[in-house]
Predict the structure.
Amino acid sequence: MWRVIDIVLVNWNSGSQLRDALASIALYHSSLVGRVVVVDNNSSDDSMMNVGVGDSGIFLELIFNKGNAGFGAACNQGAKSCGSEYVLFLNPDAQLFCDSLLIPLSYMQKRENSNVGISGIQLVDSKGQVSRTCSRFPATSLLFAQALGLNKIPFLRSWSQHMGEWDHAGDREVDQVIGAFFLVRRTLFEALGGFDERFFVYFEEVDLSYRARQAGWRSVYLAGAQAFHAGGGTSEQAKASRLFYSLRSRLLYAFKHFSLVPAWTLAGITLFIEPVSRAIFSSMRGGLEDVRNTLEGYGMLWRELPSILKNSRK
């Protein structure tokens, strides 16, 4: 294999993490990677200063947006510059290791895996612990349980979209791999029209994975390859906004993929019941600051509701 993959990174105030991510690509994967595209969503820090891939032979393209276009839209921007067989969407707070690309690429290029359209690998944190990153497709029952806070009860934690009960120690076909390391066949990505840009952030990879499954493609998680992922990333900088965008994307997904009655039921639970349950759990976990962030996030959701309903009808 020679330069069969292009990599897209979306940057927003990631600090030195972006440079570390690019350095790991150049160090381990210069023979596999033809192009790296960094799309900056109007960062206000110095994260785009002195970025590069050294003398590795990898072509680096930088795209600067005048505003924050959102994660999905920025990924689509970057993907338009890609011409290799595979595209990897990689978070700036991730770093590749020596086999991070070779193992999933080798797997996907086997004839018997020709219907595997998307793959992810094992991600480890700063302590070397394996993160539980894969998820189920959002069924109405799972989202209801999440909105009501039932999945926070110890013996009901499996009532969750997130596959936290699985140790991620072996290979497995899954509904969705995490967007922090999201390897996809370029022809599939283009056939699906890329990420749905109505999802500003969150659920865009869930939606794409679901549409890929509907088109007959599989997603796999491969434990034989690893990469580092700090987790949280720059979303830790704005917890209320992170909650808002997560809830917003959840409702957009529901109105896109569920029938009207379950979608409106979920909207009612999200808007009227979940704020109370989340505030209670927030007060138990983090005190008044967490409660304030929770209520602020729901306030943003209420103000955005007319726009959400308008966008959901497209």
